[in-house]
Structure formats: structure tokens, C-alpha cells
Design goal:
The complex is a heterodimer of chains A (about 280) and B (about 290). Chain A has 7 helices and 13 strands. Chain A is an alpha+beta fold and about 280 residues long. Chain A has a single domain, classed as Aminohydrolase, N-terminal nucleophile (Ntn) domain (Glutamine Phosphoribosylpyrophosphate, subunit 1, domain 1, 4-Layer Sandwich). The termini of chain A are far apart. Chain B contains 6 helices and 12 strands. Chain B has helices spanning about 10-25, 70-90, 95-110, 160-170, 175-190, 225-235; strands at about 30-35, 40-45, 55, 60-65, 120-125, 135-140, 145-150, 150-155, 190, 195-200, 205-215, 220-225. Classes of the chains: A alpha+beta (about 280), B alpha+beta (about 290). Chains A and B meet through helix 1 and helix 2 of A and strand 3, helix 2 and helix 3 of B.
Amino acid sequence: MTGPRLPVAFLQPGVSSFSDFLAEQAPDLLPGRRALPQGQAGDLAPHGTTIVAATFPGGVVMAGDRRATMGNIIAQRDIEKVFPADEFSAVGIAGTAGLAVEMVRLFQTELEHYEKIEGTTLSMDGKANRLAALIRSNLGMAMQGLAVVPLFAGYDLQAGQGRIFSYDVTGGRYEETAFHSVGSGSLFARGSLKKLYREDLDETGCVTATIQALYDAADDDSATGGPDLTRRIFPVVQVITADGARRLPDSGVADIADRVIAGRMTRPDGPSAALT
Amino acid sequence: MSMPFYVSPEQLMKDRADFARKGIARGRSVVSVQYAGGILFVSENPSQALHKVSEIYDQIAFAAVGRYNEFENLRIAGVRLADMRGYAYDRRDVTGRGLANAYAQTLGTIFSSGGEKPYEVELFVAEIGDDAAADQIYRLTYDGQVADEHGFAVMGGAADVVASYLGEHYVEGASLQEAVRMAVAALGHTSDDKGATKDRVLPLKDLEVAILDRTRAQPRKFSRLSPARLEALLGERGPGVAAPPQPGDAAPGTMPSDATPDDPADPTDEVSGDVPPLEDPTTGEPPSPPPVAP
């Protein structure tokens, strides 16, 4: 800012999007607006890995493992990759960790800013579209190896159900039914959820299914972290219902993870599904 | 070429201040009260959509009286400033003092610049801290002055009457219920030009009530009180309007049920109640003009 007085642009009504306002007033703060030198930059920074989400009657669960990798190195064991976006939604991120965390912060501010200026929250689809626009603005960096791929889940108060949206690096937005996962271990996690997911799971059952899926992802993908028994590090789980989003306490997640691990002691590949 | 008239700077500033003050005095008052769990805002505002009290950031709220379009612009500017600072630094780095400063500079510059009309607004910027001692209420006037208020603060049309009522009844560390009841009673406390005071029962739908609630679990401490919660807090307050006059009221030997106080200044008002005098005491004309011949 130039002086102590609020700049004229601040006092002009009309723009209720925080990122649009930043693009006008302080474009250097936007993650997608930085000039990058040529070349691949994908190996320079840590990458976050697997996020899973699944719906149950009355809500949606999102869970993420805790590992960030840089090539063959484990960059961080207890990174958090699932964040509340606002009171009724959560966003999980896979890809370049630094950019992704910044993008989540921008997205959180974006939703809160709209709510404060307009006096009402965005619709679920509106939130999903704003996130798509943020991802799209990052396309240049994605092409140099710094891709960010989020998974967005929330409780739609109008529809009265949990909803999940996935994205691609070009900002494509796709609504998923029942469950989805993103990140390096997503193939294994999705295969696991295919066999474990039931439409009539309750909240605890749904959390257990996502933790089983993360275990399966860590089983076959070196970049996904499994439950760390010695350090007691377990996945971050957000549960979103009509009452709002809340993060499950570590003790609650640890109980469920301990039961999953106890089952794997006798059957390492996890619970078996019926053949027909 | 015509010469502009000379106007002394004192006169110029006085005219601008009078102009702004008049605009503010037309509106209804906003009350802000510190209670044990935070800060309470109550205003008389029949509109459900156009708010006088709003959220700026986690622990900061904004209340205003005066011209809606002007304070709405200031509110949006405050939200933008706070969100931008919180995004560029951290959520804890957004302070009420910084915001009050930016508002004061803006209002002050606009007031003293010749080109712009002064803003006809008065603002509260309130921030709650970890305990009641750390709470802050800043009051900003149209000319950019900042005052640090403690306990309670009032601005708007009948600010002095409401403030004197609050001054008599305010207690430190009150519960939310006590604070809401006191603030609503204070807003209903009015006085006419003769100095007689009257207590109105403000209808529920005309009240806009919001709190900065220290006990709220979320980081965003601002919340509006829903009509249902407000009704429960206020309890039974008596009927909002007086009962209509009964047919037997005017009969001899009875007192009218909708009696207005006698006016001692009127020599012809010899009857108790609101029976109008037969004719005007000074002009001798009847109270309503006689019909004009067609």
C-alpha cells in the first residue's frame, strides 16, 4: 500500500472474489502468477501423495496419509494434507506440497471472503468451480512438473448429502459418486475402496474403509506413508456432516488404525470380499 | 471571470462537520456492550438483509451508523484489508488497531479534502482478546477521530439518551442474557423534546443482534443471534403496543385507557387524558379547519 489511507480500489464495491481482488491489487501474492525459469522443476520440492474420500448417508469422510517425498527421500513424516476449506467442506491435496498448501490457504480465504462480503456462503458447486479456477491458473507450473491436484469434498446443505469433486491439472472438475482418491497411491486406494465400500456404511465404518484404503495404498506405493506405529502417526481424517466439518481426534483415528492393523496381522491383504 | 467567495477554514470545517453530524443523527442507534464472554452489538434495524453489524475477521467485528452505501464500502474495504494481511502474513497478524488506523486515516483524509463530500458515518471496530481486559472497542467518527471505549459505547441518532441509560445500568462482567436485556432496554429508552422519557418494547424483528463470542470453538468468533435464541434470551417483555381504547372510556367519571399525559403548558387542557381542547387558545380557531363551501 502507498499511504496510510485505504486505496480507492479497496472501497470500490463489486468484486467479491478474493483471488480476483489479489490479481488486481497484489498479483505477486497469487501462486499461479510467478515467472518460472525454463526446465523441469518437479524434483526440487517435496510431493504429497494419497488422499481418499468416501460418502456415507448423512455426510462425507476425507482422509490423507502423512508422507511427503522428494525423489527417494521421505521429506516429512507428519505432513498434513487434508484441510477444512470452510465450515462444510474440506480439501485434500496431492502434488507439489509447497504450492498446494499455498493454494489451500488461498482457497480458504476465498470462501471466507465471499461469505463475509456477500453475507451468504457459496453453493457447493460454486465452491468447486472456484477451486477449479485456482487450479487452472497453475497450469504453467504444472507443465514444468509442479502440478497440484486436489480432492474436494463437502456436505451440500441444499441437496442434503455429501459430495466429492476431483480435478485434473487443467482445472477440469468432475463430480464423483460414492468414493474417489488422488495421488500416487490412488490406484491401489481406489481398488481397495471398490471392494470395501458399501452405500449403507455408518460414519465409523466409512472412516475404517478409508483407513483400509490408505493402508493398501501404502502397501504397494512407496510414496504413500502407512500408519507409523512407533511414532504413533496416523492419517488425518475430516468428517463433514450437516453439523459441519470436524477433524477426528488423533486418539479416535489411532483406535480405528489399531483395529485395522490387528486384522492385517492375521490377513496381511486385508478383509476379503465375497466372490459373488 | 467570477471570483469565488472567501470562506474561512474554520467555517468550512464547521459546515462539513455539521453536514456529517446531521446525516448521522437521522439514523437509529447502535449499542456495543462488553460482557463476560465477549462483546455484544445491538441495533434497531428493520432490514434483515442490510446489516449494520458484520464480521471483519476472526476476532474483529464492525458496526456502523449513517449512510448505508458509505459504511458498506468501508466494511468491504476492511474485509479486503484484513483478508489480504491475513493471507500475506498470518491470521494472528490482523489486529483491530491496524484496521481502526486505516479507517481513521481514510475518514480523516476524506473529511479534510475539499473535493469529496465527508462521509456521514460513525463506526465501531471491536476486537476480543483472550480475556475481558484485552477486549478493545474503537469508535471512529466522520472526521477520522479515534476514541478507545471501555464497557459500553453508543453511536447514532439518540446516542446521548441511550448512553445515559447504559451509564446507569451497566455492570462489568455481566452474562450474555443480562447484557442483551440491558442493551435492548437502552435502545427502547427514548425521550421527546420536552425531556419526558418513554420506554418502548422493540419488536423482535427490528433487532439486529450479534456477538463476538470468546467461548466459540471455531477461530471465527463472530456470530449473529437467531430470532429464536434472542427471544429466549430476552424473555417476557410485556406487549409491544398498548391495548386499543375501550368503548366505555369516554363515559363520565372514567379515565380514558389510552390517556396521554396532561400538558401543563396548555391552559385549556383542564380535562385528564387526551380530550382535545375545543379551540386553539391563541388563535381561537377550532382544531380542524371548517369545511370549505363547494
